[in-house]
Amino acid sequence: MAKLVSKTYGDALFEVALEKNQLDEFLDEVKAAQTAIEENKELFKLMSHPKIVKEEKIKIITDIFTGKVSEELVGLLRMIVDKGHFEQVDRVFTYFIDEVKEYKNIGTAYVTSAMELSDAQKAAVEKRLLETTKYVKFEMHYDVDSELIGGMVIRIGDRVVDSSVRTKLYDLTRELSKIQLKAGECAS
């Protein structure tokens, strides 16, 4: 249900942004609204409170965002509140942001390495990803996990490339156990 809600509202906003030829403007507004909502925990509590009537919640959202973001985004927020889906607003925004990035061929890559990568290594990884994918630009996120021992794991969407030493050792151990099992079977 949550995925359907985020897709429905996210697609609607994306279509309006495309029609108005304002993808970048809507993207900036959505990011700003998402940050404002994330940083204001009291607003989220207020919008989720069962004793506050829907009309009051709509008025609060309208008062907060009117004049700061487009009428279309205020309208979307009002509709989300009216339909009782405010708890999904972050997912709606994230879905929209992902749709805009995909449309503009901007990939998001999560790179985990065993040690901190130098700037030159980071540039080489990004260059290689640009050469081997459809994307024209990447938002790169780097992390260090010493348990990888060596190598790296790269995740782009639902695709994962794992060249870590830890995984290679695990695969080798599995293969060796299969060989031992087959040798044991023959000995019986």
Automatic annotation (TrEMBL):
Alphabetically ordered keywords of this record: ATP synthesis, Cell membrane, CF(1), Coiled coil, Hydrogen ion transport, Hydrolase, Ion transport, Membrane, Transport
Concerning Pfam families, the annotation shows: OSCP
The GO terms this record gives for MF are: hydrolase activity; proton-transporting ATP synthase activity, rotational mechanism
Gene Ontology, cellular component aspect: plasma membrane; proton-transporting ATP synthase complex
Coiled-coil regions listed: 16-43
Q: Repeat as a keyword?
A: no
Q: Where in the cell is it found?
A: Cell membrane; Membrane
Membrane topology type: Peripheral membrane protein
TM spans (from-to): none
Family assignment from sequence similarity: Belongs to the ATPase delta chain family.
**Role summary:** F(1)F(0) ATP synthase produces ATP from ADP in the presence of a proton or sodium gradient. F-type ATPases consist of two structural domains, F(1) containing the extramembraneous catalytic core and F(0) containing the membrane proton channel, linked together by a central stalk and a peripheral stalk. During catalysis, ATP synthesis in the catalytic domain of F(1) is coupled via a rotary mechanism of the central stalk subunits to proton translocation.
Query: Could you identify this protein by its name?
Result: ATP synthase subunit delta
Q: Which organism is it from?
A: Roseburia inulinivorans
